[in-house]
Amino acid sequence: MDKIGETTLLIDLAALEHNYRFLKTKLAAQTKFLAVVKAFAYGNDMVVIAKKMQALGTDYFAVAYVKEGILLREAGITAPILILHPQPVNFSETIEHCLEPSLYSPKILHSFLKVAEEKNQTDYPVHIKFNTGLNRLGFLKNDIDFIADKLKNTKALKVASIFSHLAASEDLSEKAFSQKQIAGFNNISNKLKQKLGYSPFRHILNTSGILNYPEAQFEMVRSGIGLYGYGNDKIFEEQLKPVASLKTIISQIHEIAPNESVGYNRAFTSKNYRRTATLPLGHADGIGRQYGNKRGHVNINGKSAPIIGNVCMDMIMIDVTGIDCEEGDEVLIFGPNKSAEDFAASANTISYEILTAISPRVKRVVTNL
Ligand SMILES: *Cc1c(COP(=O)(O)O)cnc(C)c1O
């Protein structure tokens, strides 16, 4: 890789492949693998990641919204795509692009069934989502008869899978709760299978679920964050490789005298002589204001430097006093050996948020294609 020259998110496809193979070691050979590529594949470029995952043989993809699924289809992704959170306004397009909706409520089931019948579909694949304790989206156990009746009286739809989502799969102090969700899901899915008279495949595990409850892998698992190199646990993160590295360069260096201030609202004031560097990325690039005022740290030539003062829209200033560096030098915000999880923790958030926050204006460069 040549010098980056400007703020760049490097996307390492060899790391993606490594993470996929690592996650597969936790699974039985016949267990299907769904790659979660919503939110631009957690900020990494949805099309690039999906093409690589398709080449690696992933069985399924999932995105949150129909428009994300359409982008994948337009890019030539042919594998099945589960839409986790569709809305009725998009159901016509859902069918036109062969996208498979999660049906999570009576209202959504009714409205998708209506569109599928109007479009003369037979056995259109849908996925029935149950709420087993997250209380976010999903049918309840009491809806089983309703679902089975609806589906028995139509040829338009066929249940491809039954699924649910764990509320605290990364938190081992909630093990009893997770196990209760898994047992409840097993029970619900068996009942629905019986009523339908056929066997859709089942799935409940996300990345932390795969790592902590591999015995509940059923016929498929869904992984997002693990593919991108994070596992909500240091033990697993040692075995995973970050796909994304966010790098920038120093635009300008300033020598700051005592009692001067740096940045908007004079949020940083110097007690003594400081050397500061200005970097070309700010809250419009995804580095929120909560990283300012010495919470977030970046790496320059192997040394850690705090972000000082307020984060601007297009810039941050860092304190490089005592660090051997000059204008044009490369700066690492997060990546291998500087975990996005730790960077996020400095601002009281999680890797998921900082990864998905990196805005489209940041240049993406794919490595190890
Ligand atoms: C986002 C999402 C996932 C992926 O979770 P990770 O923790 O990133 O593996 C899986 N299932 C559902 C329903 C999701 O919304």
Automatic annotation (TrEMBL):
- Residues the entry annotates as binding substrate: R136, M313
User: Which key words are in the record?
Assistant: Isomerase, Pyridoxal phosphate
**UniProt pathway annotation:** Amino-acid biosynthesis; D-alanine biosynthesis; D-alanine from L-alanine: step 1/1
* Protein name (record): Alanine racemase
What is annotated as the active site? K38 (proton acceptor), Y264 (proton acceptor)
Q: Which domain of life is it from?
A: Bacteria
| Record NCBIfam families | alr
UniProt GO MF annotations = alanine racemase activity; pyridoxal phosphate binding
- Tell me the SUPFAM superfamilies matching this sequence: Alanine racemase C-terminal domain-like, PLP-binding barrel
